[in-house]
From TrEMBL:
Signal sequence, start to end: none
The protein's required cofactors: pyridoxal 5'-phosphate
One of the GO BP terms on file: transsulfuration
Location of N6-(pyridoxal phosphate)lysine modifications: K225
Keywords tagged on the record: Lyase, Pyridoxal phosphate
Example of a GO cellular component annotation carried by this entry: cytoplasm
PANTHER family in alphabetical order: METHIONINE GAMMA-LYASE (PTHR11808:SF86), TRANS-SULFURATION ENZYME FAMILY MEMBER (PTHR11808)
SUPFAM superfamilies: PLP-dependent transferases
Family, per entry: Belongs to the trans-sulfuration enzymes family.
EC code(s) of this entry: 4.4.1.11
Protein name: Methionine gamma-lyase
Amino acid sequence: MHPESLMMTHGYKPELSEGAIKPPVFQTSTFVFKTAEAGKAFFEVAYGLREKADQEELGLIYSRINNPNLEILEDRLALWDKADQCAVFESGMSAISTVLLEFLKPGDMLLYSRPTYGGTDHFINHFLKEIGVESIGFRPDHSEEDIAQLIEESGKADKLSLIYIETPANPTNELIDIVMCRRLADRFSSNAKKVYLATDNTYMGPLWCSPLEHGADIVMYSATKYLGGHSDLIAGAVLGGDEVMQRIKVLRTFLGNMASPHTCWLLLRSLETLKVRMEQQARTAERVAQYLMKHPKILKVYYLGCLPKDSDAYSLYKRQYTSPGAMIAFEVKGKEAEAFKFLNSLKLVKLAVSLGSTESLGQHPATMTHVGLDPEIKEFMGINERLVRLSIGLEHEEDLIMDIENALRQV
Ligand SMILES: *Cc1c(COP(=O)(O)O)cnc(C)c1O
């Protein structure tokens, strides 16, 4: 069946919870074992002392290791990305930093796409650097051969352990080719060392892009965004095959950064409407983008739905995505004062960072989400003082366009 058909029921047995149609919040720290032998068997599997037997399920032990709300959520999330397993975290950053820590050790090298989310960039260039993990950043305009050359020239090609990408790049929707990154990972893998490929799919997933199908080993989400979708929680998720997920789940057990039962419960509710929300948001975004493209006070619109059909970016977009998404960036004619005037004049659209929620949000990347970016990358990406980013929510398109029109009139 399709994932949306299974979001209400998959992984939950009402008869184990007094017949309740919805999973209760299992607000409990620990679980009672039927026998000492059962407890022993659960621990053997949880600590990786032996493989799980056929049909054997890991029993409930302790809520840092497993909890019904966490497990039901992970089973349901795995359906969208067709992943073997999922691990849910207390934030997107927690998911990302756990992946980076598991797959990079002192002396290793990381290849990553720039720009990447500010928190990820900071973790790579401060924490990882201090523990002796070197990194090479590449831009969306670098070709496969340019990137291979960067790796060779570093003199540490044999130390490359992880390729980390975020696509589309926020906020101007530049694309990174996942298949090309897979080829690079394979090219620099050896018998002694496999190079893994991890993708932050927050912007377009899980509906409009399936990185595992394009060759990624690991997919990560800030579940705070579309998955949660109501601006009322912070969470993250990692998905992939059994081998990588086992490693990530063991590290999560010892870092203790899993999501709480209540956060998982909220996410379970959100997942039931994930598809209708995302599809409606994308439909409305298309209307808003069409309106913006014709407006005389707007210089340029960054939206995947308006890429020129004969461009390389367009063919990559068509290969990798099934929708242009619901994120739009655009330049208001003028400078910071004009962009601020526009943002300050919006009434329905709220002035806040974050994205993917039921309410539309607007913000100013150059002074807000992207303020810490390297000036070279800022320049390349066109993140200038005129640029505004919108995340389109579930309001009626006519009301959103009226709000934007009124705000532009003030500029
Ligand atoms: C928000 C976001 C993150 C960080 O997630 P949190 O849930 O805020 O920790 C990471 N990557 C992308 C692309 C994001 O938008």
